[in-house]
Amino acid sequence: MCFEMRLYQTATEKNIADHTFKYIKNQSMTMSEEQLIRTILRMNIPVIQMEGETYVFITLDFSSWCTSNSMSRPLQDTKGVS
Q: Any idea which GO molecular function terms this record carries (predicted)?
């Protein structure tokens, strides 16, 4: 993707996050991990309280598992390469 397209995409995402998502209560793009977990649990209280059912919520941070991230991040930041 060329620099101009990446710039347009990131500017659009930033504007949506800052100006649109504040009106959408349960969006998760701008939530912290803790806020997201609390929202998921609050929305699933009726499901969690069902007898004979057990639900487990697991969160994984895949960015910490990426061993090539440390090498690709500077290239992506300086050259706009994904």
A: ATP binding; mRNA 5'-cap (guanine-N7-)-methyltransferase activity; RNA-directed RNA polymerase activity
